[in-house]
Amino acid sequence: MGDFSRTTFDRMKHYVGVRLQQGVPIVDADWNEQEDIRRYELQAFLKWFVGDGVPAGNDGFLVAPLPGGGVGTIRLASRSSVPGQTSVSVDVGASTAAAALGFTQANRSATRSGSNPAQLTGVAAQPFALAAGLTLVLSADGAAPETVTFAAGAFATIGAATAAEVVAATNAAVSRVAASAGAGDDFAVMGGDGTPEGAGRCLVDGRDAVTETQFTYSSQPLFDNAVLAAEWGVPVVQPLSAGDRDDLVYLDVWDREVTSAEDDSLVNPLIGVESCVRVRREWAVRVRTGAAKVPAPGDSDFRPQHSYLALAVLARKAGVPAVGVMSDLRPRSLLVPPSTLIEDVFGTSADSYRRGENRPLTNLREAINALMRGELPGTPDTPIAPAAAQDFMSTAFTVAGGDVVALWHSRRAANVNQVFLTRWPLNAPGSAATTLPVQVTPGPVAHAFPASVALPGGDLIVVYETAGQDIFAKRGTPQALAGATEFAVASAATTDRQPFAVLSGEVVVFLWQQIAGAARTWLYRRWRHATNTFVDATAQQLSAATAALLSGGIGDFSAAVDGSGDVWAAFRADDGGGNFSIRLLRLRPTTLQLDEQTISSGGANEQPFVLVDGSEAVWVFWRSGTDAAASVSYQRVPLPAPATWPVQPPPVAVTGAAAARPGAVRDAQGAVWLFWSQLTGVGTTRAVWLQRHLKSTNSWGTSRQITGSAAVDDQPFALTGPGGTVLLFWLSSRSGNLDLFSKQFITAL
């Protein structure tokens, strides 16, 4: 502690300055009270007139999952055994393997005082795409750097290196840094880019907490560090633990004195003494197990002179060390507007708006301008993780944990089809995917045609076709799905294709087409997601009608689940003589009752799509006719439906030049949005179109073109998101090869 004669600041006296008189001695108490007044007034202004949170354009202290949930990451620590200041760093400029292992300018060094050595964790998880000759240059505790050069012989497959292999190669090559594999119970804290100008910031009770770097929870100086905690007079940052509960992540901010015992630059070299001590802003990211609020007076973990702010909620599971699903609680976009402006315009409080709650997904001015032009408010056409390889459309798009999760198959891995995953925040309209595409399926054999289902709790089920034309699936959070174990859905000595999956209460129903010679039938199998076990020992036949595959497409099959858990499936059946009908069936998974009818026959009928319209009806859309004469027809079956439902002559929803690939979604106001693609009249260029069936008029509105590139925009698929959004996905050739694109429509402000 500093040597002070006395402390005179008292905020209850409302002093705003100290005035020095002539002919009197200068004493430390007056100087310090002036500094305390200045600091208190600034902190009070920030607290009461600006508020808590991060500024606009800044992402300070964003709590984010590590790849793999923290399992299979690379951890680097100083080998120093002497308590005191330690450090570990990666020279990212000289290390050709740094990026692949998750070390960047924003995540390149760590320091720590106390009994535990400094630790640095990479923000990437196995498998790592290494190559022979790549290097990792490491330094510890100010000593000379050491270099790891990765050799192919140290890995089973160096292009898909495991964390254990990387750790072994690193520890064999360096002596001052110890590598280990992440075992979970960890997460990342984002915000800084490694520079003072790009630091992450957060105001807490008027105190500005600053981090220049990204870091992990376990790499904080106070993490499990009793020596440093005792020195600073604060609690340690406790290790995480798994369990069936929600944990609160919060920011703890306080100020402490620093003397020359810690910073010898405080000694004035001209006089050889420490003239003044310093006050340093400290912070720690902490977790309250099973809590919903930050510490308050009376709580055992509350400390006077500390300020607290909730950052996120972790959804933990017993026995699962991977940390995945989390909700961001930080107030964001501090701009100090009049609070009444937000309430008047958007109908929500300023506090809720700054937390990202009830915030419109588009600029109000842009929304009004779009309506005045006769358009729908929405975001720009945005590519989903484009690459110089062919991507192929799927229906495996979901909203999970506040993120849009996209799964598709692509030839970007050694020109062999594999299933890839990426995701981006739903509340960031128009943004491209914020995570690099992750290969979900294991190479080198091909995998294709994924379908996905979001489960309660944040997990996804993805099912896909293998090169051997079997059906396999994986379960996991979006972050952990790549490392999840495959399990077989159908692996008989037959050809199994075009998998589909729907969630019906406690079971996931897998559906696929089995081809045995000339016979093509649809099968299903039920799987309990609570126990990861199959209800059916073998596949069950869904329909006796034969179907036909659509060459090179994503399938002539669609399914959806109504409010009672019944599965409604439509498919194209082969009537012979070149004629195809659309058949609709209902499967009740609990009783295995099957009801099936033809809803359109004669001529060319294909590409069905099933939509459940709340509790009111089941819609089936399909392409009828061929070439330029094709149109989109539909049937509407009211709910609850009897065992045999009435079928009317199919009405036509839309006509267009070679109309094809219908897809539909129901918005929050009950309107049905029908998307399809059709020729634009310029060669083979296609565009995606939209037409809405309004509940208020029980009729179709005006059709409008949604995309307008000078390329092929095709195979639209849509889903609804929270907050009144409709998300559209489609396949486009506008970038010179096939890439997936997305767009959001705003249905309510």
What is the topological layout?
Layout: H1 28-50, E1 62-64, E2 71-78, E3 86-90, H2 98-101, E4 109-112, E5 119-121, E6 135-140, E7 146-149, H3 163-173, E8 177-183, E9 188-190, E10 200-204, E11 207-211, E12 215-216, H4 226-232, E13 245-258, E14 267-268, E15 273-274, E16 278-288, E17 307-316, E18 326-328, H5 339-346, H6 350-354, H7 364-372, E19 382-384, E20 391-392, E21 397-400, E22 403-413, E23 416-425, E24 438-439, E25 447-454, E26 460-466, E27 471-476, E28 487-490, E29 495-504, E30 507-516, E31 519-528, E32 533-534, E33 540-541, E34 557-561, E35 567-576, E36 579-588, E37 593-600, E38 605-613, E39 617-624, E40 631-638, E41 652-655, E42 660-666, E43 672-679, E44 686-694, E45 699-700, E46 704-705, E47 713-721, E48 725-732, E49 739-746
Antiparallel strand pairs: 1-9, 2-5, 2-8, 3-4, 3-6, 6-7, 9-12, 10-11, 13-16, 13-17, 14-15, 17-18, 19-49, 20-22, 21-22, 22-23, 23-24, 25-26, 26-27, 27-28, 29-30, 30-31, 31-32, 31-33, 34-35, 35-36, 36-37, 38-39, 39-40, 40-41, 42-43, 43-44, 44-45, 44-46, 47-48, 48-49
